[in-house]
């Protein structure tokens, strides 16, 4: 009985941790749209905007990868 409960809670936790991937995608999309707006308004600053966009996108996607890693660990470790 307890094993079924633990497996169910691990699966639930993995599903919740996988939601971090959605947040990373939304964050990257919003940042990209704002960068395009900034370049459209001030084309001479496109190099600086691109640098900041790449750093921000990397940090945003790193968060999504951490959530995916946690969900995979919850599912596969301890089986």
Overview of this structure, please?
This protein is mainly alpha-helical and 79 residues long. The chain has a single domain (10-76), classed as F1F0 ATP synthase subunit C (F1FO ATP Synthase, Up-down Bundle). 89% of the residues lie in helices and 0% in strands. The longest helix has 31 residues, at 46-76. It is rod-shaped and about 65 Å long.
Keywords summarizing the entry:
F1FO ATP Synthase; ATP_synth_csu_bac/chlpt; mainly alpha; 3 helices; single chain; proton-transporting ATP synthase activity, rotational mechanism
Cα-to-Cα separation, first versus last residue: 16 Å
Assembly state of the chains shown: single chain
- Relevant CATH superfamily: F1F0 ATP synthase subunit C
* Strand-residue proportion: under 5%
Q: What fraction, in percent, of the residue positions are helical?
A: over 70%
Count, helices: 3
Task: State the low-pLDDT regions, or none.
Answer: none
Q: Give a quick account of the main beta sheet: strands, pairing sense, barrel closure.
A: none
**What is the annotated CATH architecture?**
Up-down Bundle
Class from secondary-structure proportions: mainly alpha
Rg (CA only): 18 Å
Number of distinct beta strands: 0
CATH fold category name: F1FO ATP Synthase
Give the SSE string: HHH
CATH class: Mainly Alpha
Shape: rod-shaped
């Amino acid at each position: 009985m307890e094993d079924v409960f633990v497996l169910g809670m691990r699966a639930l936790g993995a599903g919740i941790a996988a939601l971090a991937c959605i947040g990373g995608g939304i964050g990257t999309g919003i940042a990209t749209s704002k960068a395009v707006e900034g370049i459209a308004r001030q084309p001479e600053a496109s190099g600086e905007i691109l640098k900041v966009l790449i750093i921000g996108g990397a940090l945003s996607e790193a968060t999504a990868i951490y959530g995916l890693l946690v969900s995979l660990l919850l599912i596969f470790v301890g089986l």
